[in-house]
Every structure is written in structure tokens, then in C-alpha cells.
Amino acid sequence: MKAVNFLFFLILLVIFEAMAAFMYLIHPALGGLGMVGAFFTALFISIAIKIVDQWENIVILRFGKLNSVKGAGIRLVIPIVDRAIFVDTRILTLDIPKQQVITKDNVPVSINGVVYFRVAQPTEAITKVQNFVFAMSQYAQATLRDVIGGMTLDQLLAEREKIGKEIEQMVEKASASWGLEVSNIKIQDIDMPEELKKMMSRQASAEREKRATITKAEGDKEAAYNLAAAAATMAASPGAMQLRTLQTVDGLGPTASNTVVLAVPLELMELAQNANILKRKQVQQS
């Protein structure tokens, strides 16, 4: 019985007490009888009046048989004859306790989740299942174990959203006959043994080191190609090497600590290079 019903009871009691007092004034012999009648009448009405909130439905069973379903407002329920069951139609949040599951590749994991559902058909939820909240909890736990048991650890870690959707479809299919509507199922936490976590950390570290080595090798390869192209360009232009040398010397800056000594003139170096090329051609011709 809701607190507001007691307010109705007090109001009605005051009214009937006033009526009893009025009857007493008319005839003193009726005063006591009027007060007793006022009390029981107020008690009866206070029990019969039900206040249904906006988010609730009330299922009325009359002599144990389903009679009607009523929405928000002031509802009259006949005491003894009727039985009123309040059903919350808002979205309910149900926690799936942590479950110990063995994956398809024989890895033990602990996993939990959360179910969001609502009562779509109050009559079905009351008459088809004894306790729809407990039934939803147990079915979600069993479905979670079945789905996780058919997946490998890599699939479990990479396809969390897909797992939630698969569990949601299975639970929704079964709970539809109970008058329940599943909004969503989310996987919250996946816990693995510490040794497995360390192995996965080492594997991830090795994988990152592998990618870094490959990236560095590709950079060295590209740099070698660029250097070879630059050397070919300089070889095709006789003055390119001199300009490059002068540019390098200029890049050292005018600081006194940077002293460059050219022991051999560039012309002699070029003359020696040309003589070496000419000698190789003569050897080839002979």
C-alpha cells in the first residue's frame, strides 16, 4: 500500500468522523455506531484506492483470473476480490555477474556484462513467467557462457560489440514470449590469468619491435636509392661535385672552431679521376 493511500484514509476518516458527529447530534444513540461505520468505511476505501505512477501499469487479477491492465492514475481495486500487481515499464538495468568461461582455444576467462530491457507486455510478464527479472538474469548468464565458449580468445578481445549483439539476439528471441523487450546487452569486463597477460604483453612488445625494424629498413632502402640517384646526377655533371663540396664547406659556418683544410686541389682530383677512366677504357680496348 502506498503512502498516498494513508492520506486518503485520513481524509476520509475525518469526513466520516464529521458525519458521525452530525448523526450524534441528531440522535445520541447513533453516535458510536456512526464512528465505527466511519472507521471501517474509510479503511475499506483507503485499501481500494490505488495510485499508479506514470511509469507503471497495474495488472488486476479478479478471483485469481486476469481481469484487466490499467495505466497511470487513481485506480479502484476491490479488496478481497481483486489482487493488484504493479509492473514497472521503464528500462531496467540488470547486471550479469562475472562468469568463469573456457574459450574455444581452452583459455579460462572471467567475463561480466549488463542487460537493458523493459516490460512490453505486463500481462505476459506476470502470467508467463514466475519472476521475469530472475528469469532474464539466469538466461543471460547461460547465453553468455554458450556464446563465449564457441569463440577463441582473439575473437573475444577483438569482437566485443559483435558478441554483445549475438547474445542480445538470442536473449531477445527467448524473452519475447515473456512480454519482455531487450534494448541492449554490453560486455563490461574481460579478465584473464596474470601469466597470460604477461605473455600477451611480450607478444605485443615483440610485434611493435618488428614493425619498427621493418620501418627502419624501408627507410634505409629508400635513402640508399636517393643517394644512388644523387650520385648518378653528380657524375653526369662535371661541376656538380665542386658545387656540392663548396656548399658543404659553406654549411660549416664561419665559426673559428670549424676549420677546413683542402690538401689537394679539386682540379687535381678531377684530373686523376679522368686519367683513371681513360686507363680503364684502354685496358678494355686492348
Structure, explained:
- The protein is an alpha+beta fold and 286 residues long.
- It contains 9 helices and 8 strands.
- Among the domains are: 86 residues, no CATH class; 105 residues, Tetrahydropterin Synthase, Chain A, CATH 3.30.479.
- The strands form 3 sheets. Strands 3-2-5 form a 3-stranded antiparallel β-sheet. It has a 3-stranded antiparallel β-sheet with strand order 6-7-8.
- A hairpin with a 2-residue loop joins strand 2 and strand 3.
- Helix 1 runs antiparallel to helix 2 and helix 4 crosses helix 6.
- The radius of gyration is 45 Å and the shape is elongated.
The stretches of 5 or more residues where confidence is low (pLDDT under 50) are none
The class by helix and strand makeup works out as alpha+beta
- Strand proportion, as a percent range, falls in 15-25%
Give helix % range: 55-70%
Cross-sheet strand order for the largest sheet: 3-2-5
Number of helices: 9
Order of helices and strands: HHEEEEEEEHHHHEHHH
